[in-house]
Specification:
This protein is of the alpha+beta class. The chain has one domain (7-110): START domain (Alpha-D-Glucose-1,6-Bisphosphate, Chain A, domain 4, 2-Layer Sandwich). It is 21% helix and 32% strand. The chain has helices at residues 83-90, 96-110; strands at 7-10, 22-30, 34-39, 53-61, 67-74.
Length: 112
C-alpha cells in the first residue's frame, strides 16, 4: 500500500542536539515491511525541501520473534561538494548506527 506524500515537522533532530524544525516527506509506507522518507536537511542541518535525500527502513521477519531492520540513506550525491563529509557524518556512531542501536535496546527491553 502506498501512501500519499505528506510533510511533517519534527521539533528536534534525531541526529544532532539542535532545536530546529526538520522536514521530511513520506514517499511510501508498506506496513509492516518498509517506509521510505525524504530527508530534507542540508549539510548545515537546516530544513531544505529543495535538497531531498531518501531514507528507506526495511523490517524483515527472521526466525522466531526476531526482526532485522535495514536502513539505507541514499541520494547523498545531492549534497554536492559536501557529499563525502555527509557520508562520514551519517556513518558515525551518533547517527544512523546509534539510532538503530537505540531501537535494538528498546526492543530488547520490551521483549516478553
Amino acid at each position: 500500500m502506498d501512501v500519499a506524500v505528506r510533510r511533517f515537522a519534527v521539533r528536534k533532530s534525531i541526529m544532532i542536539d539542535a532545536p530546529r524544525d526538520h522536514v521530511f516527506a513520506v514517499f511510501a509506507a508498506e506496513a509492516p515491511e518498509r517506509i521510505v522518507l525524504s530527508w530534507e536537511i542540508d549539510a548545515q542541518w537546516q530544513s531544505d525541501p529543495n535538497l531531498a535525500t531518501e531514507v528507506e527502513v526495511r523490517f524483515i521477519a527472521e526466525d522466531g520473534a526476531r526482526t532485522r531492520v535495514e536502513l539505507e540513506h541514499r541520494c547523498l550525491e545531492r549534497f554536492g561538494e559536501q557529499a563525502e563529509a555527509m557520508v562520514k557524518v551519517f556513518d558515525s556512531p551518533n547517527a544512523w548506527l546509534g539510532i538503530l542501536d537505540l531501537l535494538r535496546q528498546r526492543a530488547e527491553q520490551t521483549r516478553p
